[in-house]
Give the backbone structure.
Amino acid sequence: LQEVDYSRSKSSSSSASASGGGGSSSSSSPRKQETRREDDDKDDERQREFRTARGRRVEQFDGVMPDVVVKPTNDLSDVEAALVLSGVYERFFDEVLVTKRPDFAATLFARSLVDAESRGQKDLGVVRAPLPPKRLLSQTDLLDLERFAVGDVTAGRLPLPKGTDLDDLRGVFKTKGDRILKLADSFLRDRFFRPSANLRLDLDDDQQLIRALNILKDPLAYDAILSPAAENPAAD
């Protein structure tokens, strides 16, 4: 990065004017000099920027701005966030796995194990984590989760955001059911499978990765990024 400093040292000019011209000069108090230096430092901090070899502007303390901005498309609503923060998913899993579907837990636990000896890797000690199933819960489980969440509200374990009620909770399950089920699947996989295995599934839906791969496949878009950059990044 090449530093570009548009500020001018006020302290230097002040010293020159105070000592030059042959006229009389009076020294300011140490406190005033310190205050002036602090002001000069603030001016320098506000006005300094950097530029890359290709001319891309880099603001001080901000770092390099992205070439393409991918806006989030899956921000949770306040009600959805309350489901996560209050532990509804974890309590529901305990209820489903322990009480209603113990065979389900046993199956997931078995699938999360790898027999190294059967793969001929016992001596090497190398075990490749299996790829978890992308979908674990069904629409029936979603209905059970909704009933469970309503029960948590009634029992006081799920405080709903201010200005919302049970109708809003049911409405979220009706309109955002697929997203709730997908999030539940993700939390449930975390219980049984290694993070590296879960990451392989999460990358399938990573919008930033998808956008980056699409740019790599588009020579014109890729060349545009490598050319001298515009001041503002593109937005999706």
Q: What stands out?
A: Confidence is low (pLDDT under 50) at residues 1-27, 115-120. The two ends are 28 Å apart (CA to CA).
